[in-house]
Amino acid sequence: MTEPSSLPDVSCETESAFGMSVPWRVPAFSAGAGVLAEHVPLADPAFRFEPAICRALLAGFAHNRRVYLYGPHGSGKSSHIEQIAARLNWPCVRINLDGHVTRADLVGRDMVLLREGRQVTEFVPGMLVWALQHPVALVLDEYDAGRPDVMFVIQRLLESNGRLTLLDQNRVITPHPGFRLFATANTAGQGDASGLYVGTQPLNQSQMDRWDIVAELGYLPAEQETAILLAQLPELGEQRAQRMVSLAGLCREAFRQSDLSTLLSLRGLLSWGQNWRLLGDDGEAFRWAFWNRCDETERPLVAELYQRCFAEELGGPLPEHGGA
């Protein structure tokens, strides 16, 4: 029987929490979920939500819709889910399906344990089984990089009732009413034609068909990216932040035209800004964050784009220098 304290007990005021309204009640926890409060993410007051994505994710939380969110790296997919969970006081757990996660890691396995001085064999549930039985928002990151045997385990959760059968235990687990399921990926399940995301693979389309909501989060408009930079790094100043975002836009346009094979993401912009805070030098901070990982044949183009935005030469690597 579900304890009342393990269910959402208040409603979220979405206007104040997310700057938008939705045509349904969004449940929330007044103070986390008891012993699971440590799994509630920390709220970032500087975070900026993309309205369409926020609406899709709120539908997932409010109506137990399974949401598949995809888009380029560094666009804020996982952060959107975590920051919504933070404002709802909803425990959130992320699992990275990096290709090394096995079926046993998710479902569980028999292990030899020491009980009262004696060795006993006991079934230890995996993270998926644990999350399924608690009021937890489970986020499966890098979903399009998961192993096929793992993906078929997850497919059971995408059925209408979401029950999971543990064959080794002769048990059928019914999801907790507060359990929510999300996935993030770099592709829409069709595979990667760009070559950016090595290790991803086409997903079983019968499984993709079971996701209730599929949403795409691309890079944000320049105004929003500038606002995020200034919210998190106000010392940059508006002019510098605008120049950084303009350079990111030019790099992305060069990528679309196949002149550049590397994308400057919002995460990269934030790293650049943090490097600038350490160095006080735009060019060197940019090298640390982006230029040094560009292909050598493409660096002249990146240097030209940098000069266009900052009206100064980027040049090659700086000579070694001393300093504290």
UniProtKB/TrEMBL annotation:
Annotated SUPFAM superfamilies: P-loop containing nucleoside triphosphate hydrolases (SSF52540)
GO molecular function, one term: ATP hydrolysis activity
Record flagged with keyword Phosphoprotein: no
AAA+ ATPase domain segment(s): 63-209
Name of the top EC class for this enzyme: ligase
Assigned EC number: 6.6.1.2
Keywords: Ligase
Name of the protein this chain belongs to: Aerobic cobaltochelatase subunit CobS
Source organism per UniProt: Pigmentiphaga humi
Classification lineage: Bacteria, Pseudomonadati, Pseudomonadota, Betaproteobacteria, Burkholderiales
Gene: cobS
